[in-house]
Amino acid sequence: MNILKLLANLAETNPEQLEQSAPRRAALESLGRFSAKALAAALPFGLATLPAQARTTLTILDSLDLALQLERLQEALYTRALAVTGAFFPADPTFRASILAMQRHQQQHIVLLTDAIAASGSTASAPANYDFTGTKNGTQPALFADVFTDFDQFLRLAQLLEDAGVRAYKGQVEFLSTNDFILQTALQLHATEARHAARIRMMRKQRGATVKPWPSPTDTSITVVGKTDIAYAGEDALQQYLPDFRPVPFQLLPIGFPGSTVLTQGVPEAFDEPLTSAQATALLALFTY
Amino acid sequence: MHDNSFLARTIHRRSFFRVAGAGAAASALMLAGCAKEEDNNPTPINQQLVIGKADSVNFTVLNYAYLLEQLEAAFYDKVVTTPPADLLPGELAYLTDLRDHELIHREYLKVALGSNAYDASFVTQFAFDFSSLTLTTRQGVWTAAQRLEDIGVAAYNGVAKHITTTGYLKMLAKLASVEARHAALAHEVLQAGSWAATIGTTGLDAAKTPLEVVALIQPFVPIEISTAYLPTT
Question: Which of B45, B63, B13 is nearest to B214 (CA)?
């Protein structure tokens, strides 16, 4: 999180500078036509009014930066996997093709988010150094020692990060709600991440893992307590609450036959839960140094 | 039965005059019949399905999501009740999970809406019309599932920005990604590697406006859906 940096930038920036359009125009040129047009249309409302709505706007930028860091992490994972020489990917060509498509999507997301941050007059945080074994560059025991030699281990990490990515976007949507364009874009990114996560899970299932396309209490756990379990913390919630804090009385609703597993399995499966910024940041920290 | 209340409710008279008690499958024909009879009776009636609320964009969006979840739940319920004979091993379990998830989504939104549910005062619920789909083969079932799930994802992606209460926004976001996971599954079972079919050149999954979505789901709804209160962007 770079709240402090953003605050410092904000303090140094005068409103006139924020309205300068040259950097924005330059940034937007690298986007596709749709995105550029839509971003240009959306930004003046959400971001040019920065001084008056500093708190809200800062939160939008902070959310975008967190998303950018997660996308970079995923992109780096796939780029390194795709660069492995020798027999790392299975013979089924759709496996490598899927990882290639995910890498491409993450690269597109990075461009989108970087441009959105730049177009708002802010600066994206610098890319981190990644260590996907989780040793923090050899300073602690590995979590995924064979991530680029054991394809199943690679898939477990990919699943962890994609599921966490879905959850992290979900945790940010409330902070984006003041800007319709950015909120919708984040939801579209969120749906892409969910399709990634489902595909990774199906690849694992094809290779014999007990896993469904969505997080389920029947999945075999892939986490390490006190380390990677944060990615799924609270994901198995049996209860949902309405905005007025009333619990949804699932046991009284016509959703299943008495004695069925719908309450204990269907309900947790039917809802993806959000991750907070702090949880997402803690997860990022496991693989960066 | 898990879906008793869904089938037992009848449609609101104002929305669908004289269909109460009629067999579900006949509803479209009954509607045509009604229209002719109305020639002899000039009393104006509203034969549209009004799923929004004039005074609340939040309840309009939730009702819209509720209708979509009802549609998906009814679809999977029909499939699971009469599955095609050529399903592959594991596919009925997937379809049953999908049915359960959509039932849960439907009832969750219904609880959230309470008396604001568009069908809260219906005497008998209308039945969705799946006659345009081929549900006797796995190819047909999964093709239909793909279509419905992709519509659902694009609908959530396109409409959630209109929510003005973050509590409701968070509710919808919890469902939206599960729908995207369903959609990826529905694509994959028919063709390995096809999960990304709806993701565009900027890495964004599709978004559709409510009016675009209504046009896509109208074939399954035997009453004209009113778009009067739905957001147009």
Answer: B63
